[in-house]
Design brief:
The chain is mainly alpha-helical. Helices cover 51% and strands 10% of the residues. The radius of gyration is 39 Å and the shape is rod-shaped. The termini are far apart. 8% of the residues are buried. The model has no long low-confidence stretch (mean pLDDT 75).
């Protein structure tokens, strides 16, 4: 019996020498590709998870300073203190030039949401105490509701002096002897 090309069925089932060479070459290429892929994966694992330098962007690329700072603030949960710090930089815009010349924000207590402001005279401290509810409303409007609960105004004295040759241990200054 003959197949249509002059070969018997037994001859058609057996590959010829050229066909055997093609099959062997294909098998060798696939084995080499598999070995190369395995070696490349091992190299990438040693280098830290497959990060390679090249023209495409990856996690190691430099980023803009503003983006890096914003990312750090968000990751650490510093949004409110950073916003209050921005308020301290814009203090003259918020309270006005006259008040800003005489009253300076010193610190912000995040736990109690209190902004501490020091004034250069008792008259300005009194004035700022009268303006405090309006300023709290303005600050909360700017920063978000509840960011500042209260403004604590401090007068210029700054507390008792803790130095001098005639200071008695435990005294708070000249006012502690008066009734």
């Amino acid at each position: 019996m003959s197949t249509g090309d002059g070969q018997t069925p037994d001859e058609a089932a057996e590959p010829s020498g050229v066909d055997l060479a093609r099959v062997a070459l294909r098998a060798a290429r696939e084995a080499a590709r598999a070995r190369g892929d395995a070696a490349q994966q091992a190299r990438q694992a040693r280098r830290g998870g497959g990060l390679r330098s090249g023209a495409r962007a990856d996690g190691r690329d430099p980023m803009a300073l503003g983006s890096a700072i914003n990312r750090l603030i968000t990751e650490r949960g510093w949004e409110t203190p950073a916003a209050v710090g921005g308020v301290m930089g814009r203090w003259p815009e918020i309270v006005g030039e006259d008040v800003a010349k005489h009253c300076v924000p010193e610190r912000y207590d995040e736990d109690e949401r209190v902004l501490v402001v020091r004034c250069d005279s008792t008259a300005w401290a009194t004035n700022l105490r009268l303006l405090a509810p309006t300023l709290v409303a303005r600050l909360n409007e700017d920063l978000g509701h509840g960011s500042v609960r209260m403004i604590k105004v401090q007068s210029p004295g700054g507390g008792p002096k803790r130095y001098g040759p005639l200071r008695a241990p435990g005294s708070t200054g000249p006012g502690d002897t008066y009734g």
